[in-house]
Design a protein that fits this description.
This protein has 17 helices and no strands. The chain is mostly helical. The two termini are 26 Å apart. Belongs to the major facilitator superfamily. Bcr/CmlA family.
Length: 396
Amino acid sequence: MAMSKGKQLWLTVFLGLMSAMAPLATDMYLPALPTMQQDLGITASLAQLTLTMTMLGMALGQIFAGPISDRYGRKWPLAIGMLFFTLSTIGCVWAQDIMVFLFFRFVSGFAGASGIVISKAIARDVCEGPELTKFFAMLMMVNGLAPIIAPVIGGQILLFASWRGVFVLLVAVGLFQLLATLVYKETLPADKRLKGLGDSFAKFPMLLRNRYFLGHCLVQCFVFGAFFSYLSGSSFVFQNIFQVSPQMFSLIFGGIGAGLMVSGALPARLAGRVADVVMMRGALLVPLAGSVLLLLAFSMGAGMAVILPVLFLTITPLSVLGASSFSLALSRQGKNAGSASALLGFFSMILGGCMMPLVGIAGENTAIPMCVMMIIGYGLGYLVFRLMIVPEHESA
């Protein structure tokens, strides 16, 4: 579908913000995790469980949001999701009990999942081929702003408000996204929608029987599992091991997020010249080597001058992996884009959500569990890539 530059810019910003629901909902309060732990009198693992509930909610929410958007269109499922994200985040602001807080975090993740999965389906509605790869890369760049800005904002909020102030700002974000959704014009015409909701869910077994598509799901499952291990452990590593302030941690985290944004420009520039599968290979091998070096560095008691460059090298290729893998996986799905995007989103979050509390199981003063989980995640991701994705490209 041909787009004017104005429409492309609007969709890039709109979909970029929607696809950034995960970092917006989690990264903004990462600097506040140790403070929240002390305020609520809970363990590090229980504090990290608040991230887990958000990720599990987002993983399960995408399973429903994708098929629903294939059946009823993109606009109204997205608007309803943003409405419930806003309401449940208000619940997080007022929750006094950790169990109540965990419940609202799950609901906000479940509702916010609509933004993640439907934004990718909309991209598939309007683009295909190399243009789809370029558009996904642009989304990753906009998406990359969230890990830069969100923790910095969260750290600054802690200077004059409690950790609950972070969620007040998230309420405002939800309201803005709701209003933006109401302005958005539907991109899935009625004649291209699936005939019944049952048909939408019936696509899941068909998609998972596709070895190539399942390979992309598993690669994202393992790689993002490694990434979320870093996500949940980094605030405790830097604030408890290296004794940095929440504000300094937010700057460190934001700097790595800037690397994610810059690397997100590579697929757009290389699309049509370098095969997506080649970009995927590099985006898996570099983090695998980096995570091994990271484990060695922490085991030897290395300082931040060594840890930060290695961590930067390990995390930043994720944008390249995300853009190339999503493009390859969705390019063959057509009207099943919503269901396919839902499965990819589910797999990219479910393992990470489950692993988050394990990062803190050995206490909040060691980085070894985080490093080990990152090595396992990247290693399994590369193994699946070699066995399930590469063979089809070689035969082609």
